[in-house]
Each structure stands twice: as structure tokens, then as C-alpha cells.
Amino acid sequence: MTVVGAVSPPGGDLAEPVTTATQRFVQAVWSLDRDLAYSRHYPAVSWTGSFARQVDAIGAWQVDHGDAGWAERRARAATLLAEADRLAALAEIIGTGTLPGHERMVMLAGRLIREAVLMQSALNENDAACSPQRGAALLQAVLDVADAFLRLIEQGVPATTVEQVDFGPLIRVREEAGGADNEAIRHRLDQVLHDLEVLA
Fold first, then answer.
1. Which of 49, 64, 168, 171 is most enclosed, with most CB atoms within 10 A?
2. What count of other Cβ atoms lies within 10 Å of the Cβ of residue 28?
């Protein structure tokens, strides 16, 4: 049996008794975030406040169904998002320009994951639904790009130079490519990787 419940804590206080009691026995939580909604990030599901307790079981299921890299991709994305959030809070105090190049690239990777993978438009026919295969292809493309610009920083390329690269094609492909058109995602990935390679 699967039970889906909705809890709307007064004033958004996630520490109130009904919410905390609910979180004790549920296996997964999708936490909606007011700030994401106000910034027009839809669906406004918080990656920090949401969780699943069956990650190992889901990972095993994915392996059985042909996606052996699911757990690694998920772990890398979660790590990058958490680190990008931490650095964004720090950058608000001391300024992005004072951060080392590697940390600025982590922030950039977090932005790409948010905009190219986690956002979704219900008004766009291509983006209204996403198959597991398409989601995996989008996330892998972003992780490959993140690896590329982190390598550039290690080679001495300035962070400002990498940040000026147009990542728009990779961000827009989720809306422009059809549900099963992973070839379009690979094409956009190759395009962005080429733009990064010329910086080396």
C-alpha cells in the first residue's frame, strides 16, 4: 500500500508537532519551498528539505532495470547542490569574486543542476513529463560539463572565463528535446564541451 499525504504547517514551521510526527514514519518527503516559488523555480521542491529513506532500494531497482550509474549520479548531484548552497550563503557575505575558482565552479554546477535538471515547465509539451532515461541523460550531461570546467580551473583557466561560456543550449534542451530524444541532449552536451575545450 502506498499512502500520499499532505501536511501544511502553520507559518511554514517544519518543526511543529504534526509535521515532525509525520516525518517520523513516512519513507519520503517532498518539501515545497516558498523562496523557490517566488523565484519562479517550478516545481518548487526543496532539495535540502526533501528526503527519501529508500535510496538503497531504489538504487538496486535502477541497477536491475539497466541504470547502474543512478546511485553515483544522485550522490554527486546531492553533494554539488549542498555545497553550492553553502557557498552561495558565503558569497552573499564576502562576494562571489573573492571565492577561489574551484568554489565558483561548484556554484556554477549547482546552478546548472537546478536550471537544466530540477526545473520543469508544465506548460511545455516536451518538459511536462520526463522519463527516467531522459532525466538520467540530462543529469549526466550536466555532471560531464561540471567535470570539464573543474578540470579547466585545475589547468589555470580563470573562473570568470569559464563563467562567460554560454550554457544556455544545455539549459534549454529539456524544453526543446522530445521525451525520448536523448540524442538532442548528447548533441547539446558536445556543443558545450567543445566551447569549454577551446578555453584550455
1. 171
2. 12
